[in-house]
Write a structure and sequence with these properties.
Layout lengths: L24 E2 L11 H15 L11 H12 L11 E4 L2 H12 L5 E6 L5 H7 L3 E6 L8 H11 L3 E5 L11 H11 L4 E5 L23 E6 L12 E4 L2 H10 L7 H12 L1 H4 L3 H17 L3 E2 L6 E5 L4 H10 L2 E2 L9 E4 L3 H24 L2
Parallel strand pairs: 1-11, 3-4, 3-5, 5-6, 6-7
Antiparallel strand pairs: 2-8, 7-8, 9-10, 10-12
Bound molecules: pyridoxal-5'-phosphate.
Enzyme class: transferase
Catalytic activity: L-histidinol phosphate + 2-oxoglutarate = 3-(imidazol-4-yl)-2-oxopropyl phosphate + L-glutamate
Subunit structure: Homodimer.
């Protein structure tokens, strides 16, 4: 027995996380490259000062005001309004999804997704002793409805996790698939559509929020970490049937959302339009990046998110390292041969393009010298 006496299945496992390196161009964790506006910063500072006055007291455990604010924000985008009792929030949508597994997974139950997908999902399953099953996506990273249906009927999962757009591929889910999967899953499970990048979807691609009134077992998660330019704030949330929110209450830690988190999130919501103000230009930059990469002969997955998965590289690690040596940090993730780049400012994307061409040219020259 070695010390510390950790659960055997966790022994020797490296904690999840992209390298946090201090380099000039950081395009590795899909953050919004634009910081908050001066007006938002001022409102956040005032709100924190007001919250500080009562920091000797525990915060509102039910975060009522924040739930109302988040419901109003989501309702801007839906035909049927989302109600405050349909909202749950936690410290990032990762915590929201872990709580979902705590409440709806567990020993003897199964969580399911389709690879390649977000690498945190199997960790929620592991940490809650839930059996993990991963089906596969098609060659173009889309989800085939018949394949998905067959696997769901076979393993009868209590939680199905599907990001839309998918990370790391950028693929959005066909809205017809959502209704169909909710039906196959039935009342013995829930479908979690992880819309961490939902605000970046292309015009005309609907949100899964529209399917909520038709499906009691549907959960849509969102976050302030990406389009909302609030990765440092740690606020994620979901919209679902109120009974699902009630179930999460049983497993959440008391007062899990601090008074300062609630105050900052409310201030951020008041400045939603400013914080989301760069989404349109990030979308344009994304489309331009995809076009440029394809023009250079790279393969690029269709993307509705603020990143692009591109390849194929015989030695992707060498390309990743070559970019890093030139001050550009991207992400070595996804199936072998692919790399993922987050969409930054026009200047950052210019650096990325120059560095990538240089890396490719240098490696071609080396190959010629040492065939
Ligand atoms: C970034 C991301 C999240 C959001 O994580 P937070 O905990 O809210 O910061 C959720 N799902 C996917 C697929 C992501 O890429």
């Amino acid at each position: 027995m070695t010390f510390p006496p950790i659960r055997p299945e966790l022994a020797g496992i490296a904690p999840y996380g992209a390298p946090q390196l201090d380099v000039p161009v950081q395009l590795n964790v899909n953050e919004n490259p634009y910081g908050p506006s001066a007006a938002a910063i001022a409102d956040i500072a005032t709100s924190v000062a007001e919250a500080a006055v009562t920091l000797n007291r525990y915060p509102d455990r039910e975060f009522t005001e924040l739930r109302t604010g988040l419901a109003a924000y989501l309702s801007r985008d839906t035909s049927t309004p989302v109600l405050p009792e349909q909202i749950w929030a936690a410290n990032g949508s990762n915590e929201v999804m872990l709580q979902l597994l705590q409440a709806f997974g567990g020993p003897g139950r199964t969580a399911l997704s389709f690879a390649p997908t977000y690498s945190m999902y199997p960790e929620y399953a592991r940490d809650t002793h839930t059996t993990w099953v991963a089906g596969t996506r098609e060659q173009d990273f889309s989800l085939d409805l018949d394949t998905a249906r067959a696997l769901i009927e076979e393993v009868r999962p209590s939680v199905v996790l599907l990001p839309s757009p998918n990370n790391p591929t950028g693929t959005a889910l066909d809205p017809a698939v959502i209704d169909a999967l909710c039906e196959v899953i039935g009342e013995s499970g829930i479908l979690v559509v992880d819309e961490a990048y939902g605000e970046f979807r292309r015009q005309g691609v609907p949100s899964a929020l529209d399917a909520l009134p038709r499906n009691r077992n549907l959960v849509v998660t969102r976050t302030m970490s990406k389009a909302f330019a609030g990765a440092g704030l740690r606020l994620g949330y979901l919209a679902a049937d109120p009974a699902i929110c009630d179930a999460i209450r049983v497993v959440r830690l008391p007062y899990h959302l601090s008074a300062t988190t609630q105050a900052v999130a409310l201030a951020a919501l008041r400045h939603a339009d400013e914080l989301l103000g760069n989404v349109a230009s990030l979308r344009e930059e994304r489309d331009a990046t995809v076009t440029w990469l394809r023009d250079q002969g790279f393969t690029v997955a269709d993307t509705d998110a603020n990143y692009a998965l591109f390849g194929m590289f015989e030695d992707r690690h060498a390309v990743w390292q070559g970019l890093l040596d030139r001050g550009v940090l991207i992400r070595e993730t996804g199936p072998d041969g692919w790399l993922r780049v987050s969409i930054g400012t026009p200047a950052e994307m210019r650096s990325f393009r120059h560095a990538l061409l240089d890396v490719v040219k240098t490696s071609a020259r080396k190959a010629q010298e040492n065939p």
